[in-house]
Amino acid sequence: MSFQSDLRASIRSIPDYPKPGIIFRDITTLLGDARAFRRAIDELVQPWAGTKIDKVAGIEARGFILGGAVAHQLSAGFVPIRKKGKLPHTTVSVAYSLEYGVDEMEMHSDAVHEGERVILIDDLIATGGTAAAAVQLLQQIGADVVAACFVIDLPDLGGAKKIEALGVPVRTLVGFDGP
Ligand code: AMP
Predict the structure, then answer these.
(1) CB of 153 sitting under 6 A from ligand 1
(2) Which of 59, 99, 115, 178 has its CA 20 to 30 Å from the CA of residue 141?
(3) What is the pLDDT of residue 90?
(4) Is the CB of 82 under 6 A from ligand 1?
(5) Which pLDDT does position 99 carry in this prediction?
């Protein structure tokens, strides 16, 4: 089996969660499968091995798990991008819309220094609203966002194209058709 079909098989699909019409792609099953988890991290890391990445930024909450492992592997720092009100120090913030709702995200304003090379990590890109907001936050404080990386792409929702239009290359490991 290719690594993509291995990874695909390790992701659980839950119809009509959190609301009717959404198929929730649950990566807890991937995370719980040692081989799939290692493979996903290895594949996310692979393009950057031997290059200088200063920081890995992960989006709450699943992006923390994947981003932490990727940062460790690249000997990079980790930067959490969190839901409003969770970070204790001075923050920058941005409002964004989700596939299923509206929210606000924040990061510490001193988490990334001007010109640092950053890769952004989350579990899944759907409409791209969340990732676009995270790119905006990072660029606002002077980061050089060299890529946005996701385990799962929902290509029918056009998120990857939206991020590429911001000048940030996108890498995804497996795609699922539909919403
Ligand atoms: P979006 O902003 O539309 O690209 O949505 C991406 C964010 O919402 C990511 O943080 C995902 O974890 C979550 N998300 C959106 N759609 C799904 C889905 N179908 N299954 C699992 N997570 C999703």
Answers:
(1) no
(2) 99
(3) 98
(4) no
(5) 58
State in Å: Cα 28 to ligand 1 middle: 14
Q: Is 129 in the pocket of ligand 1 (CB under 6 A)?
A: yes
Q: Which residues pair with 172 in a beta bridge?
A: 150
E strand or H helix at 112: none
* 43 noted as active-site residue: no
CA 101, 102, 107: angle at the middle one, nearest 5? 130
d(CA 4, CA 1): 8
- 65 alpha carbon, distance to own chain's centre: 10
From 39, 82, 99, 116, active-site residue = 99
144 and 115 in contact (C-beta within 8 Å)?
Answer: yes
Per-residue model confidence (pLDDT) at position 97: 78
Omega within 30 of 0 (cis) for the link into 88: no
- Mean pLDDT by 10-residue block, N- to C-terminus, for the chain (179 residues)? 88 96 96 98 97 98 98 98 97 83 92 98 96 97 98 97 97 95
* 3-10 vs 34-45: helix crossing angle, rounded to 10: 130
Domains of the chain from N-terminus onward: 50-175 (3.40.50.2020)
